[in-house]
Amino acid sequence: MDSKINRRDFIKATTATTAGVAALGAGITLTTYVNANENPVTNEKRWGMLVDTNRLTESDIDGMVTACQKENGWGNETHSTGDQKASWIKKIKVKDTATQRISNLALMCQHCEEPPCVDVCPTNASMKREDGIVLVDKHRCIGCRYCMMACPYDARSFVHEDITNQKEHMPRGKGTVESCTMCVHKVDKGGQPACVEAVNSDAVIFGDLLDVTSNIHQTLKRVQSTQIRADLNLNTAVRYSGI
């Protein structure tokens, strides 16, 4: 998805998502997001991402989207209507009205410390792990889409159609909500999200925000960064520089 909006509106204005009533999700074969390590998930880590819009190119973002689709198995399903396609990560153009400068950035779930999607979920399907990664338990999701309305980043998608050829590590199901998982299945094995691996530079940095020796922590100390909708006090794990 490629869209263009005003920089000020993007940072400050709330996005809106249309909601409805859905049936209980079907076709889910296993519960995911169990830590693949022997070490349990703890709040001693908080995974995050820093996106440098000065260095990130449009082709970089296209590569991030493609990598996410390939890794997690979304984007190739057939839809009865074009506007119902899954969108775990989006390419956004932000324009500064004063200078006319246009920045490209990748927008996905911001993995908030205080996630509104978790607060409104009636079944606890929307959840936040101890390490800060926000997820959806597909077995518990009833498709009410309250979380989609609550998310100020329009970061969640609803599965309207039957799903085939799912990834074993990333089950999906008709009638459920889904979004960026920060490739938790890779992170738990010591890896990085697929979108980060797709960028061959430090335009996107992933790591433990709490680790003072980590690249992301050290970089955030040196450069000015922005949280999208910082006024909401959600303390997002995804930060942006250059906007």
Query: Rounded to an integer, what's the Rg over CA atoms?
Result: 17 Å
Assess the beta-strand content as a share of residues: 15-25%
- Class of secondary structure makeup: alpha/beta
Tell me the total number of β-strands.
Answer: 10
Overall mean pLDDT score? 85
Provide a count of the helices: 7
- SSE string, helices as H and strands as E: EHEHEEHEEHEEHHEHE
Question: What is the second-level CATH architecture?
Answer: 2-Layer Sandwich
Lateral arrangement of strands in the main beta sheet: 1-3-4
Instruction: Quickly name the level 1 CATH class.
Output: Alpha Beta
The gross shape turns out to be globular
Return residue spans where pLDDT drops below 50 for at least 5 consecutive residues: 10-32
For the terminal residues, how far apart are their CA atoms?
A: 20 Å
| CATH topology type | Alpha-Beta Plaits
Number of domains: 1
- Specify the biggest β-sheet: 3 strands, mixed
Helical percentage: 10-25%
